[in-house]
Every structure is written in structure tokens, then in C-alpha cells.
Amino acid sequence: MHNQTETGTVATSQTVSMRTLIALIIGSTVGAGIFSLPQNIGSVAGPGAMLIGWIIAGIGMLSVAFVFHVLARRKPNLDSGVYAYARVGLGDFVGFSSAWGYWLGSVIAQVGYATLFFSTLGHYVPIFSGDHPIVLAIAVSLLTWLVFAVVARGVTQAAFLTTLTTVVKILPLLCFIILVTFLGFSWDKFTLDFWATNGDIGSVFDQVRGIMVYTVWVFIGVEGASVYSRQARSRNDVSRATVIGFITVLLLLVSISSLSYGVLTQAELAALPDNSMASVLEAVVGPWGAALISAGLCLSVLGAYVSWQMLCAEPLAMMAMDGLIPRKIGAINSRGAAWMAQLISTIVIQLFIVVFFLNETTYVSMVQLATNLYLVPYLFSAIYLVLLATRGKGLTHPHAGTRFDDSGPEIPTAENRKHLIIGVVAMVYSIWLFYAADPQYVLFGAMALLPGLIPYVWTRLYRKEQVFNTFEWGVVIVLVIAAGAGAIGLINGTLSL
């Protein structure tokens, strides 16, 4: 059932079950990254550093997952978590920047997913290979608009497709784990040059730092249930789905990356193509193994593409409903789909397809840029939990409105201390990730955030509201300086995508 709201949008009934939320997390997290993981990590780290990296990433991303788990329970009235938490915690503009960054990260990820989908297909159907970039760009565009047509039909249809593709694409991953474990894994090869001291990939610290961006990329989507909490049947479902989804994904990632070092050496893994998991299984069972994983990759990327097409419109729709951008963008059709936000997202995806293909931007570059944009709401959500645990509320700001009431249940002192620890660990981990990232992509991320000032400032002026408070002016100044540095680097050629 759908109800008309006073803002002119339509409130949808809460119809997404916990099973679908878990599928949404796994479907959006297990995308292209897991299939490229052996080569990605093998190019920068040996087995020992890999294990250390996963310990750090596991603790760090678990703390991030628990941030959303805790906030979903403490603030059940807040919808679209990655946006709402940042807004209540640090003010309207920070909330807007988080949602804008999350949206752009999702848009860029869509281009990367579709590109990898067709490039893998191109191994078997040459017309889709990188030798035909125009054909590839057209194919990516057609897929984008096809998925838009599916998603625009409503949440139920898209959620069903997400659940179906999630189940199907997990099967090749399980086959990889079982076959490599019993047929191909060699402990002697795994422990050979355990710390990669014979290569030129740097110290153990450098290796651990090098794999951080890839461990974050393959975990992106763990907050998926929180993003879509507006459609959930209960907030308890959101928090449980987040934890169950995280543990499932972590087990898959650690198993696949560890087993690969028992089949091929670090140098051999580093030399593999993007779909490196297929090459690892091929080394164990022959060409049919590569074909199996390639089919799994295509299904996985397709499922992730649908999941992210669902997710990326939510921040736009929620900001529109709350008056941070024009309200018409939040329009919802009779089937419960935020069709205007979906249409805008699809158009922007199309624009990025043109820009990236003209610039011959690599899949890895898209990963780096999208990851940095995702880190913004992760960091701000962790800061909000720290504020809740220390002062009981977020920063005071004038425009939050009744939907962003910062009240909540009374939290026992002992439980509040646990929440503080979770928030601090997630905050430190997020800051460490910005440090570990390639600095140029931090600057490019600032450049991507800057255009968001146009609709935000226009809406503020139209509503005759204060544009920025003192704290927000400081954030804007930092953003403009970083974006300016990135633009200068692109102009003089010192930076490039």
C-alpha cells in the first residue's frame, strides 16, 4: 500500500524482508572485486602481509558494520542510515556531502561493474573485448538502461532479481573453495617466501598498506541494509542482516585470497588478468574451471549491478524528501520506485560511461575513486556513534526537522562504553584508510563532491534558509582547497585518472 505524503511524494509500505536485506548486502558486496582479489592482493603483498591485512580489515570493517548495527537499534526512527546518521551527527551539509559522495561512488562503481562484465564476456565473444571500445561503451550503456527499466518497476521486482542472482553467483565461489582446498592447495607453496622478501613490493608495512584499498572495495555494500532501511519490515532486521551479511562475505574473501597463494606464487598471482580467480582455478582443474568462474563473474556483476542501481538512488530520494535538494527528485511512482532519482542516476552513469571511455580510465582507477567516496559516510557515521556515546546526541544544527529527532532509548552505561569502543575503532580505521589510499584519488573525490554545492546552495537560497553555519564553512573551505589541488594536478599533468 502507498500513502501520499505532505511533501508530494509517496510513502511506500515496508515490504523488504530480512532475507532480502541479507541478499542485498551479499549481492552488493560480492560483485566484481572478489573475482579480481587474487591478482589485486598478489600484486602488492605476500601471504604473511595478506593475513595481517585481513585481520586489520576484518576488525576495521566489522567495527564499521557494527556502527550501522548499533545505530539501527539506537536510532530506529532514522532512515537511509549512511545519510541520516551523518546529517544528525554533524549537520545538514555534512549529511548532504555523505549522501552525495555515496551516490557518486555508486554511480562510478556501476560503470566499473558493467565494464568488467563485458570485458569478461569478451574473452568468449570477441566483439565485446577491449579491442572494440565503442561497442563496449554501447553495450554498457544498453545494460544501464535495461537495469533502470527493471528497477523503475518497483522494489519488489528488483529485490527478487537481487535475491535470485545472489544465490546463483555464490555457487561458483563455493566450487572454487572446495576444488582448490581438496585438489590444488599446497602448504609448501603458501609458505614459500611467506613475507615476500625476495620481491620488490616493499616492506611488510608497505604491503599491508597497499592491500587496504582492495579490502575496502570488496567490503563495499556491507551497509546496504542500512541504506535501504526505509523499506525494511523492522530495524531489528536491518541490524541482524548487517552482521550476518558481513560474516558471510568475510569468510568468502579470506578463503579465496588465502587459497590462491597455495596454488600460485605471489609473482604469478600479480601477473594474472583482472578475472584472476578464473586463472587460479584453471591452474587446478583446467579450462573448464576458468569458464565456470567467468560465468560466475558475469552473474555476480549483473547481480551487483542491480543491487547498486537500487541503492544509489536512495540517498538522492531521501535528500529530496528532506528538502536538501529539490523535492521533485524524490518523486515515487505507483510501484514504490523512486523513479526520478533512478532516472537522474542512470543519466549520470551514462555521462560517466562517456567520460571514462574517452579517457580510457582503467577498472582499478574506478575502484580507487569510488572507494574514497564511500569512505566519507563511513567516517561520519562512526563519528556520530562516538558523539552519541560521549555526549548523547549529535551536533546542534537548525534544519534537521522532526524526522531527524535525535532522541532515543536510554542506554546503560556499560553498553554505552561498548558503543564508544566500536565507534572509535571504526573512526580510526576510516581515517587510516584515507591515509593508505593513493592521495590523488582523495583529491579527485573532493572534485567529485564539489559540484554538489550547486543544488545544495540553490535549494537553501530558494527556501530562504541559512546556507552554512560556522562548522560547515570550515568543511566547505577544506573541500574547495582539495578540489582545487586536484584540478591543478590534472591541468599540469602531475595527476591523471
From TrEMBL:
Chief location of this protein within or outside the cell? membrane
Highest taxon of source: Bacteria
GO cellular component entries = plasma membrane
**Protein localization:** Cell membrane
Example of a GO MF term: transmembrane transporter activity
Q: Which Pfam families match?
A: AA_permease_2
Q: Name one GO biological process term.
A: amino acid transport
The residues forming a coiled coil are: none
Alphabetic keyword roster: Amino-acid transport, Cell membrane, Membrane, Transmembrane, Transmembrane helix, Transport
- This chain's protein is named L-lysine permease
